[in-house]
Design a protein that fits this description.
The strands form five sheets. The chain has a four-stranded mixed β-sheet with strand order 2-9-8-5, with no helix packed on it. 12% of the residues lie in helices and 41% in strands. It contains one helix and 15 strands; from the N terminus they run H-E-E-E-E-E-E-E-E-E-E-E-E-E-E-E. It folds into two domains: 88 residues, Sandwich (Immunoglobulin-like); 74 residues, Sandwich (Immunoglobulin-like).
Amino acid sequence: MNKKVHAFTSLITFVLFLSSAAAASQVKIATQSLPTGTVNTPYSTTITTSGGSVPFAWWVSTGSLPPGLCLTPSGNSRSAVISGEPTVPASYQFSISVQGRGGHTSTVAYTLMIDPPAEHVVDLSWNASGGNVVGYNVYRGTVQGGPYSQINISLVATTLYSDSTVVNGTTYYYVTTAVDTEGAQSGFSNEAEAQIPGN
């Protein structure tokens, strides 16, 4: 009698394992939003995925990317990069789709804002951090003390950064963090204020 109960339990466990494996094999786009771009300024952002079996097939399924930008799969196709230099300011709506080796498809709709060329540029500089620092991240907010949003696309290798995405008549507050060889990020630096003229 005990043997029969044990066999039944094993069967349930086996069925549950198969269901979990099937669910894990479905690719899903993890990136849900895209950073704003600026006309005539290099743009690059990565769309990541979870699950699925490579190789993946990527395409723009509805709408179109802003002029000057293109979609390029990574080397192993697990992610894709939207990059280039946008040329026309506007709000662009489009969908990106990815299909896994098993045929399952994931699609996400995006809105990408491309701002007109900046009339003003904020030039930032800071003191270098000691230790095994490989670069810096730059954060910006419109309220003193935060919250802040990261504005650099990739790590800044020097202690200089120019922000050309500012809007006239706005006051911005900037902080930086240092990133070491292990990918650990420091706390925020002291805050710097920049007041952008109204015209």
